[in-house]
Write a structure and sequence with these properties.
about 35 residues, mainly alpha, about 90% helix
Length: about 35
């Protein structure tokens, strides 16, 4: 993993952010419904 980060830091960070955003977008509505 460290080697990949060294080779493509910007690309890896961008992919991680996109994955986190997708997870957050799919998780947040369900979480809000459970709260209500």
């Amino acid at each position: 993993m460290k080697k990949v980060l060294r080779q493509h830091p910007a690309r890896t960070i961008t992919e991680l952010r996109q994955k986190l955003q997708e997870i957050w977008d799919s998780f947040t509505p369900n979480f809000c419904q459970n709260l209500v």
